[in-house]
Specification:
alpha/beta; five-stranded parallel sheet; 5 strands; 41% helix
């Protein structure tokens, strides 16, 4: 199984990255091949509504890091989006990524893929409901299957590590991803 993890936090060693690293390790131990991308290390331009992605070869006309990210989305069986919650939604860089999914609405290349979320929030799960709903709608529009979301109260840099000591939410998600793969 191929898994790609998009980390939409500006803090490379923050809570989102911590959870993503642990999830990647659990999945690799179970035989998955994982790749991770820190979105803030990549130039992602906003969608310019040129509509090139809706005609001809149905690809985005812009020339930026999305070419690499698109390639890895298409490679993956499971796509995991990790983003801290800012004002009840994803980080700006994650939103740029989502907005550039328009080619997939037309070309259906993500249809049937599975997706999961990693959502640390300063106030916890109650702050994540709008972001989860947004992602679920994106997944539905693209024909993707939503697996589950990890939500945890994590604000300071090591909060996620402390939460994972209480209960390994990440192992639970890894198990679910792998169980669903076996079932498919």
């Amino acid at each position: 199984m191929h898994v790609v993890i998009f980390i939409g936090s500006p803090r490379e060693n923050g809570n989102t990255s911590t959870v993503a690293s642990v999830l990647s390790r659990h999945l690799e131990e179970k035989g998955a091949e994982c790749k991770s991308f820190h979105l803030y290390q990549h130039t992602i331009q906003p969608c310019i509504d040129c509509r090139k992605c809706k005609s001809d070869d149905m690809v985005c006309a812009q020339n930026d890091a999305m070419s690499l990210l698109y390639e890895n989305m298409e490679w993956a069986d499971v796509i995991i989006f990790g983003t801290p919650i800012y004002w009840f939604g994803p980080s700006a860089k994650t939103k740029l990524l989502i907005d550039r999914f328009r080619p997939y609405f037309a070309n259906k290349k993500l249809y049937g893929k599975r997706a999961a979320l990693i959502l640390p929030a300063g106030s916890g799960a109650d702050d994540c409901d709008m972001a989860i709903e947004q992602f679920k709608r994106v997944f539905k529009a693209l024909g993707m299957d939503f697996i589950n979301a990890i939500t945890l109260q994590a604000y300071d840099e090591h909060d996620a590590k402390d939460k994972l000591k209480e209960h390994d939410y990440v192992r639970d998600l890894a198990d679910r991803i792998m169980e669903e793969e076996v079932a498919n």
